Amino acid sequence: MEKVNYEKLGFKCGIEIHQQIESHKLFCKCPSLVNDPNEEKITIQRYLRAPAGETGHIDIAALHELKKGKYFVYEAKPTSSCQVELDESPPEEINHDALETSLQVALILNCDLVDEVIFMRKTVIDGSNTSGFQRTALIGLNGYVNTSKGKVKVETVCLEEESAKKINEDEKSANYSLDRLGVPLIEIATDASIKDPEHCKEVASYLGMVLRSTGKVKRGLGTIRQDVNLSIKGSSRVELKGFQDLRSIPKVIENEVKRLTRLKDHKPEVRKVEPNFMSIFLRPMPGSSRMYPETDIKEISITKDLLAKISIPELIDEKALKLEKEYNLNSYLARELIKSNVNFDLYKTKFEKLLPSLIASILVEIPKEIKTRFNLDYKFKESDFDFVLSALNHGRIPKDSALEILTEIAKGKRPNLDKYTSVDEKELENYIKELVKKNKELSINALMGMVMKHYKGSVEGSLAMKILKKYHK
Ligand SMILES: [Zn+2]
After folding, report:
1. pLDDT of residue 54
2. How far is the CA of 25 from the centre of ligand 1 (A)?
3. How far apart are CA 84 and CA 472, in angstroms?
4. Per-residue DSSP letters for 194-232?
5. C-alpha of residue 74 to centroid of ligand 1, in Å
6. What are the residues facing 146 on neighbouring strands?
C-alpha cells in the first residue's frame, strides 16, 4: 500500500483529553461514580431549553437538537446525587484537591497558570447536564510537550464538571444517570501541530502518562477520553469522539483522512468513532457562542500559598527508566512494575538472594499469564507474592514452580509447598548416578526425560542436565 504523505495533504490535527480526577464531585461533597443498584432512584424529566449565549443567538448545534423536540429523563440516587446535581441548589465550594491536581498537571505540561480561576458556563446541547450548561475554568495555557517529532503546544488545561452518563436514547428522549454528573474533570487541549496518525497516538499516550503520574486520576474504562480534531487541505474540521483504545487512534485517523479526500463539500461536524475504526455523523460542530460567565462561583486567586502546596511528581516514564537501569530490567518489566505501583526496592531487600528479573517477572508476568491462560481474574495480594518469593529465597522450591503455585492460589486453593519442594542437590546427584549406571545404553535426552518424570517438576531442569552430563559419558 502506498504511504500517505500527511504533510502534502495539509494534515492538521490536535487532541483533547478528558480525564476524571479521583475525588468527590467538583461543586458538592457527593462521591464520584457511586451507583448502588439496590438503592431506590428518583427520576426527573426535563425539556431542552433554548440556550442563548451572551450574544443572543442560538447556537447552531443547539438548534439542531432543539428541532427534534427531545426531552430528557434523569435518574438520581441520594447517595451519589444531591440538589446540586439536580440543579435545584447553587454550586458549593470548589473541591480543592481537584483544583490542586489540575494546577499540577498544568505545571507538568509547562503551562503559564492563570492568576484567577474563573468558571464559565458552557452550553450543553445533548441533555447530559441537568442545568443545560457545564462549568469549566481555564487553569493553564501556552504549555508544550516534547515528542519524537518536535514540540506540540498545549493550548489549554481546564478544570471542568463531568457530564451525566447516558443510559439509553431514542428519537424523542434520552435517559441519563447522575452519578457521573459533577465528577471533576481535567481537559487538556493541544494545538493542531500533530503531524500524522501515529504521532497523534504518541501525544495521547504521553498525556495519559502525565495524568497517571499525578496518582490522582481515576483508572479504568471510560475514565479518560480522547477527542481528535482534524482537517486536510480544502476540508472542514472534523471532531472524532469516542475512541475505545489508544491503539485505534492511527487507524481511525487514516480512515477519516481517506473519507475527507473523497468528499467535495463538507460542513464542520462531530463524528463518533465506531468499533470498526470508521466514524459516523453525530452532530454539527458547535458554534462559538457557547460560553457565558458562571455568576454563582467566586473567582479563586492562585496565591503563592496555594502554589507552595503543589509539588511536581516524578513522571512514570522517568521512574521506569530509573528502575530499568538500577536493576538491569528490561523496559517492559520496569514499566509494568511502575504501572502496578509496586515498591520494588522493598521486594529486592526482602528477597535478596533472588535475581531482580525473577522477582519482577513473578510480580508482573505470571499474574498476566494466569489471567490469559486460565481466564482467572484473581487479584493477587502482597501476601500471595511473599509466600512464593520467600519459598524461592530459601531455596525450598524451584523457580519453575512459581507459576503453578500462584495458579493454585488464584483458583482459591492453599498450595502445599511440600509438593513442590526442591530436591536436595546431593539426593538428585545420587539418583542420577544410579540411573546412568543402570541405563548405559540410553541417550542423555531419554535419561533427562526419566529424571523429570520421576521428580514431577520439583527439580530445576538446568541442574539435572548439568549432573547428567557429568555422569553420562
Ligand atoms: Zn451532590
Report:
1. 47
2. 7
3. 81
4. --SHHHHHHHHHHHHHHHHHTT-B--STTSEEEEEEEE-
5. 14
6. 151
d(CA 266, CA 271): 13
User: Are the C-beta atoms of residues 213 and 314 closer than 8 Å to each other?
Assistant: yes
Q: How far is the CA of 78 from the centre of ligand 1 (A)?
A: 9
pTM of the complete model: 0.80
CA of 38 to the centre of ligand 1 (A): 19
pLDDT tens column, 49-62: 655 554 455 666 66
Ligand 1 centroid vs 87 CA: distance in angstroms?
10
* Cβ-proximal residues to 421 (8 Å cutoff; 6+ apart), any chain: 396, 397, 458
Task: Please state, in angstroms and rounded to a whole number, the distance separating the CA atoms of residues 340 and 385.
Answer: 14
Give the start-to-end residue ranges of the domains of the chain. 12-308, 316-419, 425-471
Q: Average pLDDT for residues 186-205, to the nearest whole number?
A: 97
Distances (CA, A) of 373 to 333, 361, 366, 377, 401: 19, 16, 10, 11, 16
Query: 10 Å Cβ neighbour count for 426?
Result: 8
Measured from the Cβ of residue 257, the count of other Cβ atoms closer than 10 Å reads: 21
Crossing angle for the helix pair 197-213 and 96-108, to the nearest 10 degrees: 130
- Give the integer Cα–Cα distance in Å for 76 and 176: 9
